[in-house]
Amino acid sequence: KHHSPEVLKCEQCDYTTSYQPYLNYHVKGRHSSKQFKCKHCSYVTKWNTNLAKHVRWKHGTDRFNCDRCEYHSKSKGDLKRHLNSRHGTDANKVKCEMCEFSTKWHSNLNRHVKVCRKTAKNSLIAHVGEHR
To answer: Domain C2H2-type spans what residues (predicted)?
Structure first.
């Protein structure tokens, strides 16, 4: 037998849901006057998790440092992107099959291959023309 989920209604507006955590989130976000304030600047939010994230990104001292240059970041992902783009090894590179060109980026390889093919085709046409 199938029964409909209980409809939960906000006591302060027309919002309804069948999931209690959604109602809690709605009430806190829409109707709560409680605010979390940053000690370092004027940032204010209703969510303590947002404040923690803000402090970490804007005022935090935890840094991910590149061991090959002076680059540093508050994000491990940003450091990883930096390492791949600035200090990528040959293992990370993609290579042209028609010449010695290599790059860390597929988009650069695709652009290069278009030019390389045209150059190779023109060279072949010129070479064949020499034998006529």
So the answer is: 8-36, 36-64
